[in-house]
Amino acid sequence: MTTSLQFDSNTMRVILAEILESLTTCENALNLEDAKSKAGNDMLKVMQYVYPIVVSTQMNVIKKYGLPEGREGIIKFTRSVVAFEKDDRVVADLHRQIRSFYLPPVNVSSAVTSHV
Known about the structure:
The chain has five helices and no strands. It is an all-alpha fold and about 120 residues long.
């Protein structure tokens, strides 16, 4: 069953905040800490151990808002978040905080250098 849901910016903020809150609950925080410990600095292991916990937590939250469970729901949700974060700094920041659980920070240089 495909669901055509429309979220506004405020709803997206609420969902993202709920995901963040859920990620920091005692049980999830312990699971994430253990997974990060197992993964160390190995990005493949981070994707193997940490990322599934984050995605599972997201799925548990987004299904309450009518999105389908599983891959389809995560894809729809992520596409919606990306669309909103272009115009909403709060959504972008909340999404960045969630991604920080499994992605290292990326430093982008504001200076553009030319290699001629």
